[in-house]
Hints:
The structure holds 2 protein chains of 2 kinds. By secondary structure, chain A is mostly beta strands.
Amino acid sequence: xxxxxxxxxxxxxxxxxxxxxxxxxxxxxxxxxxxxxxxxxxxxxxxxxxxxxxxxxxxxxxxxxxxxxxxxxxxxxxxxxxxxxxxxxxxxxxxxxxxxxxxxxxxxxx
Amino acid sequence: xxxxxxxxxxxxxxxxxxxxxxxxxxxxxxxxxxxxxxxxxxxxxxxxxxxxxxxxxxxxxxxxxxxxxxxxxxxxxxxxxxxxxxxxxxxxxxxxxxxxxxxxxxxxxxxxx
Lengths: 110, 113
């Protein structure tokens, strides 16, 4: 079993739609959680950290459920520019040893 | 921009050759991590350097080695290249100030033929 698993995707949605991505992690000792965004043939960029209380940044909302070892990302009012691969990231044994999911590809269409 | 720079951006090597990839971390960041990202996969942790010492290693063979210099820049060396080493190699920097947040450079695309 992979340490971080994500929805396989791809997700193809129209502009304005709401889309949700799910992620599960296997290491119960994980302490930090993130969503990164990666455009085609570019490096991953931090989208947002995920806090236990849940957090929101504009159209993006992230949730963490430690009991279920589950992370989610909700994107409201999708824009064409949201088209990218979204990577779920969990820290591992070492402070900065991040474990990445394989990513979920999102395409927002006009 | 993250301030993390990598070189070269693209390179092609022959199986069995050796390659050195370089990374300059963001100013003030003393920790550098290297990741390998194969096509269609998420980045995989190779190793991390903190104050010139290896500070954690992923599931990569010894032919993957690294260095960190006093200015915190870093090198990734891969010996005896194999076709499966073809990937995007990402360098990420961080510090105590950034906590667990890492910032990536643009990566080095390596093709082994």
